[in-house]
Design goal:
The complex is a heterodimer of chains A (438) and B (565). Chain A has 438 residues and is an alpha/beta fold. Chain A folds into 2 domains: 1-62 and 353-400, Urease, subunit C, domain 1 (Roll); 64-346 and 411-418, Alpha-Beta Barrel (TIM Barrel). The longest helix of chain A is centred in the middle third of the chain and has 27 residues, at 171-197. Chain A is globular and about 65 Å long. Helices cover 24% and strands 21% of the residues of chain A. In chain A, strands 1, 2, 3, 4, 5, 15, 16 and 17 form an 8-stranded mixed beta sheet that branches. Chain A has helices at 99-104, 155-164, 171-197, 210-219, 232-245, 262-268, 292-298, 316-325, 331-336, 340-345, 430-433; strands at 10-18, 24-33, 36-41, 51-54, 59-62, 64-69, 108-113, 121-124, 126-129, 147-152, 223-229, 250-254, 271-274, 303-305, 363-366, 377-382, 385-389. Chain A contains 11 helices and 17 strands. The model of chain B is unreliable at 11-26 and 445-459 (pLDDT under 50). Helices cover 27% and strands 30% of the residues of chain B. Chain B has 13 helices and 26 strands. Chain B is globular and about 70 Å long. Chain B folds into 3 domains: 1-93 and 402-455, Urease, subunit C, domain 1; 97-401, Alpha-Beta Barrel (TIM Barrel), CATH 3.20.20.140; 458-561, Quinohemoprotein amine dehydrogenase alpha subunit, domain 2 (Lipocalin), CATH 2.40.128. In chain B, the strands form 4 sheets. In chain B, strands 1, 2, 3, 4, 5, 16, 17 and 18 form an 8-stranded mixed beta sheet that branches. The chains are: A alpha/beta (438), B alpha+beta (565). At the A-B interface, α11 of A face α5, α7, α9 and β23 of B.
């Protein structure tokens, strides 16, 4: 089932190239061969068989990365238990989700499909390239990307705990569960190490536990943790827990109060993936500021801006631009929030996030500077293959169609279904079932 | 002396059984159901011994449950009932590769008090691979006769349940008194589906995939431990008994396949993903949306059972001022309809050997759907192979079933013309050597089973028609109509709602000895919640308990029959 995805050859000519790592280069060409950027420079010769794209007057930037997404998943939460490290979003990738195409139309090439935030230790996430058109989930994998996992602090996991009468019912319970889980994992690791070191031919394997296996991999730094969090105190708590267990890497997701502990985050080496200006949707998110990303950036914290939404993902460039209004970030700093920085947080900055020789040919072309309100994405390339072209954009982009569907003249956009963080995790009550307010 | 005494003692033990058996056989059958003979000869028929091999003007003899002779000049046994097969076609009985035929959904389990643990009780979680469908078999199930009427004689029936409900069995679609009488083979395959436990782990596909891997790895370890212990237990810790893991041993050892219920394309891919990671023998069944996967499944050597259930043909809007957008949307919808109905032809062209699964289909739809597949590119011989020789080979019963040849089981379908012609009707079905008669109706009416059983007096069916139902929920009273119909032996029904909610189908309707049970589903904010209803019909009133397994709640539901039909 190992997929061999398409790799393209293309020369993007004469654009304003926003490299992220090497400044802005005007009237510059970007050559992509077999899916990789092979040259960036002026007046490049077009090799045989390579398609040319004229980018005169246009802006060429690295494909946008969204470090927090819930599109393209057949399920989001295994919220039936508080520690489900064994489950993985890679098993539930839904390549048929038309939301993938919408994201491409916003210049996005890579997303981090995350497990939901219903439980303390949720499932493993999947880093994906938006190779829309294939119906094989394997074709959308970001091959070679490090494994990552979702943790969640605060109101979401405690809400579930309280409604079910189980731990955690408070932030204290969350910390206790984390420490217990890692301690259990150490015991598990000791057992298996002893088994593996045993030279006897008549040895008996200890119980295999995929949940513990994953926790051990976290302890050993093989799985990067991305933690849903809001409050400064809980952010600080998790850094302490990770210090105690010697886990070096950590990204806080949402992290609306991260600005309060920015120096501490920088000292730990933790990073943050935040919203531009989305807050006050529940109590723990009231103490927020649109200056969050700028404050973190100025304090040396690797920061990204994410969508967590099938709608926001279409204009992450607008979200990044807000940091210029709130915090005066430079163009390059603002663009890094949606390119190089999320790539670092996902451990794929050697592959994507900037326009450099040797990196993947993941490119977005805009008709104006992407931080301008007037910018409209024109083309999106992944591995040198064009997946979106505004000039050739058919109306019906669905891959599979239900032959028994009814066709209505008016399509209604369902805003509620865009938020999937707590899907399947709400404790539905019997009275909800017959309520008119569905 | 000693020896003699022993012998007598043995005889005394055996005799009661011997006489007992004789006595039963000798008893006259007051129901009049028993056939006078189990030897039959169908003469002068077109005998399709296997797909493409037709013998014109042949005679086929079924005796003692087996096909005893096929040919143009066979001598007809004296005790045979001779059936004139002039103009008729004889085929090997059809085989259903995966369905719930003849099984009864077990009662909803009581919800355990502490479900919010990483490891809820296995039976609630739906992890019961040690169970067997035989425990769910209901010989009186109307599904047996319903599918037989379409020509099916053997079904691989799988248990109801969730993620790992248990093992399936091959059953004869025969009318018998005891499950043992209809079982051809037990423990055929392990059955699995992507169905989560309501409100407990594994709750959805995420947990199911992880749990599957976890069980498999532990079964592998446990099997090695068990084998090592069996060889020499000295100094070795004793293996813990774990029925779930033990049920997996033959799967891990590659002796027993796992049959997955994989309706849609992503289900198939997910089942194949597990197979790829773990390496067991796999069958993917009930495939509705797998037209892209033929080559991959062939390459992986997966057994394939396509769904017999097809979507309804789309009806384009008759409006004259359709927008271009609507015209384009209708065209794409039609394209996809074609993909569904030509799926079988696609698999045939790819050279994949496949059978069918009748899950979700009724007997009276079988022929219609087969004809639709043929109209969309499936060759009639290949269609017959998918109903006979292919499933027989895939299920490992090709030595006893799948063709109309001497020595095979007496499983036959006899039709008034070639089966794959619109007008032909099923006249006889032979199952395990027993004959079932179907009356031939003029054009429109299809044959109702006549046999020797008294025909159901439909005019006096207490259930049919419209009922007004009512039940009380925390939100107040809910009411509407239940409209119940019957086609052949099967009930169908629809529940309407007074509050304007969409109509809901009544599923799994069963009515026996005055007890009516069915289930229906309601939408609980994205989760489908099933409600099971069971109660008694007394004259025109119905008093029932409705239970919602997901919340461990039950409530009263009552209904009154409306006057007139």
């Amino acid at each position: 089932m190992q997929a061999q995805t398409a790799k393209g050859d293309v020369l993007i000519k004469n654009g304003t190239v926003l490299t992220i790592t090497d400044g802005t280069q005007e009237n510059t060409d970007v050559l992509i061969q077999k899916g990789k950027i092979t040259k960036v420079g002026k007046g490049l010769r077009t090799p045989n068989g390579v398609t040319e794209v004229d980018a005169t007057g246009k802006f060429v930037m690295p494909g946008i990365l969204d470090a927090h997404s819930h599109i393209a998943g057949s399920a989001i939460n295994e919220g039936t238990s508080q520690v489900t490290a064994e489950v993985s979003m890679e098993d539930v990738v839904n390549p048929l989700d038309v939301g993938i195409y919408r994201a491409l139309a916003g210049g996005v090439t890579t997303i981090h499909l995350m497990h939901g935030s219903a439980n303390v230790i949720g499932g493993q996430n999947e880093t994906m390239k938006l190779r829309y058109g294939s119906t094989n989930p394997d074709d959308l994998r970001f091959e070679g990307a490090p494994r990552t996992i979702k943790f969640a602090l605060g109101e979401n996991p405690t809400r579930g705990g309280r409604s079910r009468g189980i731990q955690p019912q408070s932030r204290m319970g969350v910390e206790a569960m984390l420490r217990n889980s890692f301690s259990d994992a150490k015991v598990y690791r000791t057992k298996w190490n002893a088994y593996n070191a045993n030279k006897s031919t008549r040895k008996v394997a200890p119980e295999y536990d995929l949940r513990m296996e994953t926790l051990v991999d976290i302890l050993e730094g093989e799985v990067l943790v991305h933690c849903h969090s809001y409050r400064a105190d809980e952010i600080y708590m998790l850094m302490k827990v990770f210090s105690d267990f010697g886990i070096p890497k950590l990204t806080f997701q949402h992290a609306n109060e991260a600005y309060k502990v920015a120096p501490e985050l920088a000292a730990f080496g933790a990073s943050a993936s935040v919203f531009a200006d989305w807050w006050a949707y529940k109590l723990e998110v009231y103490y927020s500021t649109a200056y969050n990303a700028a404050i973190l950036t100025k304090n040396g914290v690797t920061t990204s801006i994410n969508s967590d939404s099938g709608e926001l993902v279409r204009h992450l460039f607008h979200e990044a631009a807000k940091t210029q209004k709130y915090g005066d970030l430079t163009d390059n700093e603002a663009l890094a929030l949606i390119t190089l920085n999320p790539a670092k947080q996902l451990g794929i900055d050697n592959r994507v996030g900037s326009i450099e020789t040797g990196k993947d040919g993941d490119i977005a072309i805009f008709d104006a500077h992407p931080l301008s309100t007037y910018a409209i994405p024109q083309m999106t390339f992944i591995d040198g293959v064009k997946y979106f072209d505004r000039a050739n954009d058919k109306n019906d982009q669905r891959l599979y169609i239900n032959p028994e569907e009814t066709i209505q003249e008016v399509m209604i956009f369902d805003r509620e279904s865009q938020h999937r963080c707590m899907e399947d995790a709400q404790t539905l009550s019997f009275s909800d079932l017959f309520s008119n307010k569905k | 002396m000693k020896i003699e005494r022993k012998t007598i003692f043995r005889l005394m033990l055996i005799l009661p059984f011997l006489f007992g058996t004789l006595a039963i056989n000798a008893q006259s059958d007051h129901t009049g159901k028993s056939a006078a003979t189990r030897t039959y000869a169908i003469t002068n028929a077109s005998i399709v011994q296997s797909p493409g091999a037709v013998m014109e003007g042949g005679t086929i003899v079924v005796k003692n449950g087996l096909i005893s002779a096929v040919g143009k000049n066979v001598s007809i046994p004296d005790d045979a009932q001779v059936l004139d097969g002039t103009g008729m076609y004889v085929y090997a009985g059809f085989i259903d590769g995966m369905s719930n035929v003849g099984t009864k959904r077990p009662k909803a389990m009581e919800r355990p008090s502490n479900l919010f643990t990483p490891d809820p009780p296995n039976d609630y979680a739906g992890i019961t691979p040690e169970r067997h469908v035989v425990d769910q078999i209901d010989v009186a199930s109307s599904t047996i006769g319903d599918l037989r009427k379409a020509g099916f004689t053997i079904a691989h029936t799988v248990p109801y349940g969730r993620m790992l409900p248990g093992s399936g069995a091959l059953i004869f679609l025969a009318d018998k008194d005891h499950p043992d009488d209809i079982i051809l083979a037990e423990n055929v395959a392990m059955f699995s589906q992507f169905v989560g436990a309501p409100g407990a782990y594994p709750g959805n596909i995420l947990g199911i995939m992880a749990k599957w891997r976890n069980i498999y790895r532990n079964a592998d370890n446990s099997m090695q431990h068990t084998m090592m212990y069996a060889e020499n237990p000295s100094g070795l810790t004793r293996p813990n008994r774990d029925r779930t893991l033990e049920a997996f041993f033959p799967v891990v050892a590659g002796q027993k396949p796992v049959y997955f219920n994989t309706q849609n394309m992503l289900d198939v891919r997910r089942a194949m993903r597990l197979q790829n990671d773990l390496g067991f023998k796999i069958a993917v069944g009930n495939i509705k949306q797998g037209w892209e996967l033929a080559d991959e499944l062939k390459q992986k050597g997966a057994q394939v059972y396509l769904s017999m259930d097809l979507p309804d043909a789309p009806k384009p809007s008759k409006s004259e001022d359709k927008s271009e957008e609507v015209i384009a949307l209708e065209a794409r919808r039609m394209d996809f309809y074609k993909k569904y109905v030509s799926q079988a032809a696609t698999y045939q062209a790819a050279g994949v050997q496949f059978g069918f699964s009748t899950m979700g289909t009724r007997g009276n739809k079988v022929k219609t759907h087969m004809m639709t597949m043929i109209e969309n590119g499936l060759n009639a011989d290949d269609a017959l192979a998918a109903l006979t020789t292919s499933p027989a080979a895939l299920l490992g019963i090709d030595k006893v079933a799948g063709t109309a040849e001497v020595g095979k089981l007496g499983n036959l379908v006899v039709t008034t013309g070639p089966y794959f012609e619109k007008k032909s009707q099923v006249r006889y079905v032979f199952v395990d050597g027993d004959k079932y008669d179907y009356e031939i109706k003029d054009d429109k009416k299809k044959g109702a089973e006549v046999t020797d059983e008294p025909a159901a007096d439909t005019s006096n069916e207490p259930l049919l028609g419209s009922w007004t139902y009512n039940f009380t929920t925390p939100q107040g009273d809910q009411g509407g109509k239940m409209i119940i119909k019957k086609e052949g032996d099967l009930y169908s029904g629809v529940m309407t709602s007074d509050d304007g909610s969409p109509d809901t189908d009544m599923e799994d309707i069963s009515f026996r000895d005055g007890t009516l049970s069915f289930s229906f589903s309601v939408d609980g904010g994205g989760q489908t919640i099933e409600i099971l209803v069971t109660g008694t019909v007394t004259g025109k009133s119905y008093d029932a308990q409705a239970s919602v397994e997901a919340f461990n709640v039950s409530f009263e539901l009552s209904a009154t029959k409306d006057d007139g039909r």
